[in-house]
Amino acid sequence: MADDEITIRAANSKDAAALIKLMKQLSKESKNFTTDVQVDQLTAETEAEAIDAVNATGTNLIMVAIAGTKLIGVLSISQVAHTVGELGVAILSDYQDMGLGTYLIQEAIDWIANFSQLDELTLSVLKANQGAFRLYKKLGFVVTGQDDHVIEMKMNIKKG
Asked: Domain spans of the chain?
């Protein structure tokens, strides 16, 4: 399972059904995975349209990690202000602690530096998710605020 060759690439509309399946599995296996949409209400058709819409922008991104033919991780960047994107990343538990999150985030930073109009990434991480918090700090994110449960972080990204 975890020995499969892993591929990272931008999502395309053909990934829609598999992406919904992945999000449902992530929702079941982790309290740390949250999404702005009701995963159970998504259809492959509407998800395919959403992926196509994201791919048509220079300010939003969906990347997938694939082991063999199975989607095992997803990264998204959603534009929240003119040059600011919000980062989300989730990986199935069987594939965590293998450097995949680091690689996905580094690919996203490279995309912003070289192809996007964005120059800043923000994210929210649950305080209970210390592994993710340490990863974000290691990659250069800085804390911008926090409450009892959530830490807000950001990273400015140099172009080119």
From this structure: 6-119
